[in-house]
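Let us practice reading a record.
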Amino acid sequence: MTHLPYLIAAYAVFALVLGADALGSWLRLRLARRQAARRLQRLQARGRPQAPAPRDTELSR
């Protein structure tokens, strides 16, 4: 009796979950960047000075 089919299936599931997680994170980041760019455009169109950029050391979610 060999465990090869189980190992192949386990690694395949791991790869699928890892890929889905990476894709979800990438899409979420893309959406956040797009929203930030649109917000900046709206602020510039109103003629208001743009908000100060967050510092590099500041953590944000």
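A brief commentary: The chain has a mean pLDDT of 87.
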